[in-house]
Amino acid sequence: MPLIHIRTPHLEWSSEAPRHWLDGQPFASHFMNGLSSVFPDGEAFFVRSVLRFRDQIDDPELLLQIQAFAGQEGHHSNEHAKHVDLLVHQGYTALRAQNALLRRVTRFSVRRLPRLSLASTAALEHLTAILARRLLSEHEYWTGMMDSSMALLWQWHATEEAEHKAVAFDVLMRIAPSHGLRAWALASNTVALFVEVVGRVVYMLWKDRLLFRPSVWRDGWTFLFGKRGCLRGLGPHYWPWYRRDFHPLDIDDQPLIEAFEARNRGAFAPRVAVGGR
Ligand SMILES: [Fe+2]
Ligand SMILES: [Fe+2]
After folding, report:
1. Cα separation, 128 vs 111, whole angstroms
2. Domain ranges of the chain
C-alpha cells in the first residue's frame, strides 16, 4: 500500500477571478465548474460511505489509509466549497439548491443503501483517478490553459486522487466483493456523473446567455472529444475496472505524484504522511 500525504495548499480565492477561466472558453470552464461544484457534497458522501464500514476492517494498514483518505477528501471538499461560494457570488445561485438536493440524496443513500454507496464511491474514485492521470500526465497542456488561480487547485486535487485511488476499492473488496455490484456501480455512476455535470453546464451557460450559441457547443465538443479532448482515448484506463482481477494499483501513478511534488515545493504547509509500507 502506498503512502498517502495530507497536504494543505495555500490557495487564494478572489472574487475577481474570471468567469471563463479555462482558455476563455465558456463550455470548458463550466464543465470544470460543474465537476468542482459537485465535489463538496460528493466527497463528503465518499467519506461517509467508507467510514460507515470502518468497524468491520481489521487490517491496521487499511485503517490508516482510510484515515488518510478521509483527511484528503475533507480538504478537497473545503476548497471546492470555496469555489462554489465564488460561483454563487458570480451569479450561479441555483448551485446551492442543486447541492442541497445532492446532499439529501447521498445522505439517504449512505443510511439506507450502504453497500451500494460504498460501491458507488469506489467506482467514482476510479473515474476521478482516470481524470487525475490525464491532468497530471499532460499538466503543461491543461494547466497552461487555466487561469493561474485554478492551476494549483486542480493539480493538487488530481495528485491526491491518484494517491488514494485504491482505498475505497480495498474496503469494498473486503465488505462486498461482488463483481456484479462493482460493474453496475461504475456503469450507473458514469452516466449519473456525466448527466449531473452537463446539467450544471447547461444552467451556467443559460445564466451567461450563451446556451443557444452554436460555437459554444462546438468548442465544448472539441474540449471533450476533440483531438486533445479531455475524455478522448480514456477507454484503456476505464474498461479494466470490469475485469474480475482489476486493482486500481495495477497502474502506477507514483511517477506523476513525485513529479507534482518536485514542481510544487513550497506550495504547501508541511505535509502529513499516513499509512503505507
Ligand atoms: Fe477528492
Ligand atoms: Fe477521491
Report:
1. 24
2. 21-267
Tell me which ligand sits closest to the C-alpha of residue 74: 1
- Going from the Cα of 218 to the center of ligand 2, the distance in angstroms, rounded, reads 31
Which cell numbers hold the place of 58? 481489521
State the average pLDDT over residues 11-20: 90
Ligand sitting nearest the alpha carbon of 121: 2
Cα 43 to ligand 2 centre (Å): 7
- 200 vs 32: CA distance, rounded Å: 10
- The dihedrals phi and psi of 160, each to the nearest 5 degrees, come to -75, -30
Specify which residues 268 forms β-bridges with: 9
* R_g of the chain, CA atoms, integer Å: 18
The H-or-E segment that residue 30 falls in is: helix 26-51
pLDDT in tens, 235-246: 999 999 999 999
Chain position carrying cell 442541497:
100
Sequence-ordered strand ranges (E) for the chain = 4-9, 268-274
Which of these, 127, 235, 115, lies nearest to 180 by C-alpha position?
Answer: 115
pLDDT, tens digit (0-9, with 9 covering 90-100), for 207-218: 999 999 999 999
Q: Each residue of 77-108: pLDDT tens digit?
A: 999 999 999 999 999 999 999 999 999 999 99
User: Rounded to the nearest whole angstrom, what is the distance from the C-alpha of residue 73 to the centroid of ligand 1?
Assistant: 5
Inform me whether the pLDDT recorded for 276 exceeds 80. Answer: no
